[in-house]
């Protein structure tokens, strides 16, 4: 194994630390009473959380598009919404 490759290797302790930090960011896991959650469960819940966030963003984008379509393009409300998006 080259020295370059060995320097980029992450230790088991570093992985455990990263999983622990990730566990604190995911509401589904953070709110559980048990502190002991497997790394695979943390990663699985992280993927689910990210998928849910994507769905939420898609839904909000759709609602915003509908709002902009239904609003007169010259109105003050439309101008405010557009300025917030810029």
UniProtKB/TrEMBL annotation:
Domain of life: Eukaryota
GO CC term (a single one): nucleus
One GO BP annotation of this record: regulation of DNA-templated transcription
Pfam family, one: bHLH_ILI
GO MF: protein dimerization activity
Domain BHLH per the UniProt entry, residue ranges: 1-53
Compartments in which it is found: Nucleus
Keywords: Growth regulation, Nucleus, Transcription, Transcription regulation
Name of the protein in its database record: BHLH domain-containing protein
Organism: Solanum bulbocastanum (Wild potato)
């Amino acid at each position: 194994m080259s020295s370059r490759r060995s320097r980029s290797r992450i230790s088991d302790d570093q992985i455990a630390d990263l999983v622990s930090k990730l566990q604190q960011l995911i509401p589904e896991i953070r709110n559980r009473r048990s502190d002991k959650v497997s790394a695979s469960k943390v990663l699985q819940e992280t993927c689910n959380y990210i998928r849910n966030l994507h769905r939420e963003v898609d839904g909000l984008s759709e609602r915003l598009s509908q709002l902009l379509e239904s609003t007169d393009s010259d109105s003050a409300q439309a101008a405010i919404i557009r300025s917030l998006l810029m």
